């Protein structure tokens, strides 16, 4: 029926009606599609503008923040650019190019591969590259001479067997821990150089001249890197390791104080919120200690290559810093267990039990953190301390007080007759209060006991840090304490005791 009506209308109005209908339809179609199309175009234009302007601006902002936070990275980039510019002159200037030849490109490759952020890393890679190149070139020339003396038919077999044996042995040696720690890069350069010289020397007549040119260009590149890294704004790996250890000690002491005070916090809402905002970094400072093992090992390895600089002699015991770092990580693991097992535990100890041991726990954490801060001061000043023994005795006495306090906790949580309980308690309480104490569940006291045992374990591990620092002081020959420093140390101790 609707079709019939349409046909009649078409018969009456003819083509004019159709055109109007088509115009209306087309206008409706255009109006319905214009909105999404324009919105898609706007979104596309917006994304293009964002891609062209916002992301580059964000990248520039991050790069600027990085440069402001550590300008030494900017200087390192400038030093690498300077080294590459100088070594490129062997290619750009004809007299230098004639003297070195086409092997000048090896000097450019050497600068790119060898130049590192710290002086120790640059020295390590430079010496590894020179020794690996020289040893591989010397052996390759010897094998090539033996192959020539053996005859033309057996020459390729001798060269192939030598490449197989030496490459396999050098690759296996990279798995040995002592070689991997200090000579891994040199082994890789040995494999590369021996293979290249052996393969290229099979078709090259002047093998000695080629090996001499490559070795000379590598020496030029490494010497330039060493000079620039040591003269222009040097970054010493030993100084970086020294700063990292002392900073981790301060973070460890602050974390210990922050975690224990956070557990026993008893203050108003405003004070607690303010302390939480200011102590977030202190609570999680121990994580820097846990995550610094790889950095410490790398810096200690590079520091052993460095010459005497600043307050550090040539034979400074850098390995001892790794021992100190390992002892600190053991202490940091206990603080992490304290943070997640006690502070963030769903089982909470009763407040009156927490108040009972809060003073002794806070005193113990304060004494322990004072010992750690004093150890950091010893390393910073490179001078033995006169107050470390007194602080250790304070910490040990606090540990003993905490142990004595823990012995009374089973009496508090064990239900007893009222008469026996009153005889065992020094501070006599009422019957209602004791009924409340006697009804404590053993599960509620587990976080408090865990906290106490962790503090005792932390104190034991701090003794390990003290032994490691004292060993460092003996090996590095720290200056003894004179009378003035002894008086200053005793005055500081008495001030701490009076403020406590």
Automatic annotation (TrEMBL):
Transmembrane segments: 74-92, 104-123, 130-151, 157-176, 183-203, 215-237
InterPro entries from the UniProt entry: ALMT (IPR020966)
Domain of life from the UniProt record: Eukaryota
Gene Ontology CC: membrane
Transmembrane recorded as keyword: yes
Keywords associated with the record: Ion channel, Ion transport, Membrane, Transmembrane, Transmembrane helix, Transport
GO biological-process terms attached to the record: malate transport; monoatomic ion transmembrane transport
Family: Belongs to the aromatic acid exporter (TC 2.A.85) family.
Protein known as: Aluminum-activated malate transporter
Taxonomic source organism: Ficus carica
């Amino acid at each position: 029926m609707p079709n019939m009506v349409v046909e009649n209308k078409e018969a009456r109005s003819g083509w004019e009606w159709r055109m109007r209908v088509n115009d209306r339809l087309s206008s409706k179609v255009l109006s319905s599609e214009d909105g999404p199309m324009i919105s898609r175009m706007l979104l596309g234009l917006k994304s293009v503008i964002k891609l062209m302007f916002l992301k580059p601006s964000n990248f520039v902002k991050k790069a600027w923040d990085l440069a402001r936070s550590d300008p030494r990275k900017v200087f390192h980039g400038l030093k690498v650019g300077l080294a590459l510019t100088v070594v490129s002159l062997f290619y750009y200037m004809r007299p230098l190019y004639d003297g070195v030849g086409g092997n000048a490109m090896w000097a450019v490759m050497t600068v790119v591969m060898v130049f590192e952020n710290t002086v120790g890393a640059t020295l390590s890679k430079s010496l590894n590259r020179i020794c690996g190149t020289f040893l591989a070139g010397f052996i390759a020339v010897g094998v090539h001479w033996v192959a020539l003396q053996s005859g033309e038919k057996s020459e390729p077999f001798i060269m192939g067997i030598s490449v197989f044996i030496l490459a396999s042995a050098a690759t296996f040696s990279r798995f040995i821990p002592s070689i991997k720690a200090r000579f891994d890069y040199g082994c890789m350069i040995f494999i590369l150089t021996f293979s290249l010289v052996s393969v290229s020397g099979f078709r090259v007549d002047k093998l000695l001249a080629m090996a001499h040119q490559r070795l000379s260009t590598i020496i030029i590149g490494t010497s330039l890197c060493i000079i620039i890294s040591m003269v222009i704004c040097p970054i010493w790996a030993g100084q970086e390791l020294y700063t990292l250890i002392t900073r981790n000690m301060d973070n460890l002491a602050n974390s210990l104080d922050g975690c224990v005070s956070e557990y026993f916090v008893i203050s108003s809402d405003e004070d607690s919120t303010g302390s939480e905002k200011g102590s977030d970094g202190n609570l999680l400072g121990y994580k820097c200690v846990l995550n610094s093992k790889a950095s410490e090992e790398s810096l200690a390895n590079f520091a052993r290559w460095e010459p005497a600089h600043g307050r550090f002699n040539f034979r400074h015991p850098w390995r001892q810093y790794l021992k100190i770092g390992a002892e600190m990580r053991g202490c940091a693991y206990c603080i992490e267990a304290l943070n997640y097992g006690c502070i963030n535990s769903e089982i909470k100890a009763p407040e009156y039990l927490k108040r009972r041991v809060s003073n002794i726990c806070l005193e113990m954490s304060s004494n322990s953190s004072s010992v750690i801060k004093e150890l950091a001061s010893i390393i910073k000043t490179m001078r033995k301390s006169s107050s470390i023994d007194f602080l250790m005795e304070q910490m040990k006495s606090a540990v003993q007080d905490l142990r004595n306090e823990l012995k009374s906790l089973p009496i508090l949580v064990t239900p007893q007759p009222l008469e026996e309980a009153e005889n065992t308690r020094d501070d006599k309480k009422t019957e209602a209060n004791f009924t409340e104490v006697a009804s404590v569940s053993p599960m509620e006291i587990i976080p408090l006991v865990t906290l106490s045992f962790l503090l005792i374990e932390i104190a034991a591990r701090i003794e390990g840090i003290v032994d490691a620092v004292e060993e460092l002081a003996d090996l590095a020959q720290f200056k003894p304490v004179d009378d003035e420093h002894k008086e200053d140390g005793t005055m500081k101790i008495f001030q701490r005791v009076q403020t406590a």
